[in-house]
UniProtKB/TrEMBL annotation:
This is Uncharacterized protein. It comes from Microbacterium marmarense.
Length: 257
């Protein structure tokens, strides 16, 4: 039967939406409660919707009963502090699973490449239903930072680098694409991440905000590019050696984040 997917994401696995005027909204991400939940990089997360409405970040499949990343329960204490962010996450009218704010500390390009991961959004998702993707709304004005997307984690021949000023909005099939953020700056980067179920509601939202499967690439110097590949390879080798020394086989597992 197959899953219901958005045709707009078929070509590249992502779309960039019209920019949002984030400066009009208060900095609600500074008021909510964070968990020290590690994903790709030095991170914390502030959940707005979770499996049962608790301030926790675990995958829905790790709860009882286990389920896919759908039907998240809004956390009243968090939504009261961040009503505009909750509104934006619900605007498409698509089913929302996890919804949370990520706080990412500065992360250079080479570390970002090492952090590239895929998400496991559709674990336990029944065939014939909507495919779960993720929306990313950049909240802070990180003009020198960029999102990195690859079809193949270690192949730089096709790499998308998407700028992250305040108000940047993109939707990504994060189970298809390897992804992480390069954050060049002295302060943390904040971004709202929402799991949405594909279907007519999300398609209409993408069309409303002129979702594009291509965007201008963030240009980086050849020196930064090459150094990044070297750093990724070095860290990968060190990780493989660590597992080998323990007599274990390294597994490139999908992230829960």
């Amino acid at each position: 039967m197959g899953y219901i997917k958005s045709a707009a994401l078929e070509e590249t696995g992502f779309v960039v939406l019209d920019s949002y005027n984030q400066e009009l909204d208060p900095k609600e991400w500074l008021d909510v409660e964070y968990n020290d939940w590690k994903s790709s990089g030095d991170t914390r997360f502030a959940p707005l919707a979770s499996a049962f409405g608790d301030i926790e970040c675990n995958g829905f499949w790790n709860h009882k009963p286990p389920r896919t990343d759908k039907d998240g329960v809004w956390i009243d204490s968090q939504v009261e502090k961040a009503p505009n962010l909750a509104r934006r996450a619900q605007e498409p009218g698509a089913n929302v699973g996890r919804c949370r704010i990520i706080e990412l500390q500065p992360t250079p390009y080479g570390e970002c490449l090492y952090n590239l991961h895929q998400d496991d959004n559709n674990r336990l998702n029944p065939d014939g239903t909507g495919w779960v993707v993720r929306g990313f709304f950049n909240l802070t004005d990180d003009k020198d930072s960029y999102f990195v997307l690859r079809e193949n984690r270690t192949d730089p021949s096709l790499e998308y680098r998407i700028a992250l000023p305040a108000g940047a909005q993109l939707i990504v099939d994060t189970q298809r694409l390897w992804h992480a953020a390069t954050h060049n700056g002295d302060e943390p980067r904040y971004c709202l991440i929402t799991s949405w179920t594909s279907g007519p509601e999300l398609d209409a939202y993408i069309a409303k905000y002129n979702g594009k499967a291509h965007t201008d690439q963030v240009e980086i110097s050849p020196e930064v590019f090459e150094a990044g590949q070297v750093e990724q390879a070095r860290r990968d080798a060190a990780r493989a050696a660590y597992y080998a020394a323990k007599g274990q086989v390294e597994v490139q597992a999908m992230s829960e984040a």
